[in-house]
Amino acid sequence: RKQAGLPEDVVKPHNKQQKQTSISLFFTTKRTNKFHDAVKKTPSDHNAEGRFQFFSFEDMDLIQTYVPNNGMKEASFHRRKTWDDDMNKFLKSRLQILRACGKENRTLLWCGDLNCARDYRDGTHWEERNETQKGDGKKSSYFYEWWTDESKCFMSNPEKNRNPEDHGMPSFTPAERQRFSKMIENGNFIDIWRDLHPDGSHIKISMQFKSCWDNPNWTWRAHPSKNSKNKYEGRGQRLDYFLLSRSSALEPIKCDILGYGSQRKGLFCGSDHGASILILKR
């Protein structure tokens, strides 16, 4: 905090019940035209978990966020939905303003921990399965997701009487995925990493991996187990993104996840999220 020059209240929880602290930092070598940050607000105006930073450069805008975790209770579902709704309003309002100014093609890059797995590929331990249809007996295939199978993925029983759209682990519920898809649509974004790696990343060091789930295709990794009771060991999720407006003249030439494996090899730097890199060409 001191090295970054942040005020004391930025890194302290803003209520005594809150045990989690969320920080978002951005470093740039170029001067921005405008800068908006939740840090400038009073502590009472902070979202309990979420962080939002907006930077306007000469020829592009950049958003960096930490999106609140969906949690497992009705109160946290509502808190996350409110955040997503506000983000959707921001994206639509920005586009309306730019259209009125004749600048609807202005580049927007959104990056950060967006706390949502877009589809089955964004969580480890999925598999394609076959099922027989009732009535006609025809077989069809579907993708099984370990992270949405509540009989497998939860350490304890989740809250009862939840809506079906809130079933599954945080980041994998249908409600989160639907809202995230809407934000990508409203922002007219491409998911750069998935666009460059539709079938995942295949790197030269893959011979070191014990399984396909060790590949650098997921940005979050569970803590390595100190005993045999950690059911999440070796599992991962892709929660961190670079989203770029489709109208952008910038060309993505590299986007890689730099952390990999159940033992958190590569660039994790003490976190459970690995670093990612993006290189754009003008």
What profile does the largest beta sheet have? 6 strands, mixed
- Estimate the mean pLDDT confidence: 84
Q: N-to-C terminal Cα separation, in Å?
A: 34 Å
Low-confidence stretches: 1-16, 38-43
Beta-strand percent range:
15-25%
What Rg is obtained from the alpha carbons, in whole angstroms?
20 Å
Number of helices: 4
- Read across the widest sheet, the strand sequence of neighbours is 1-2-3-4-10-7
Taken in chain order, the helices and strands follow as EEEHEEEHHEHEEEEEEE
Folded structure, characterized:
α1 packs parallel to α3. A 6-stranded mixed β-sheet has the order 1-2-3-4-10-7. Strands 5-6 form a two-stranded antiparallel ribbon. The model is unreliable at 1-16 and 38-43 (pLDDT under 50). It starts with 33 loop residues before the first strand and ends with a strand. Helix content is 17%, strand content 24%. It has 282 residues and is an alpha+beta fold. The radius of gyration is 20 Å and the shape is globular. The chain has helices at 74-100, 150-153, 174-186, 192-196; strands at residues 34-37, 51-56, 60-66, 107-113, 126-132, 139-145, 189-191, 220-221, 236-237, 240-245, 251-257, 259-260, 265-266, 276-281. It has 4 helices and 14 strands. β2 (51-56) and β3 (60-66) form a beta hairpin.
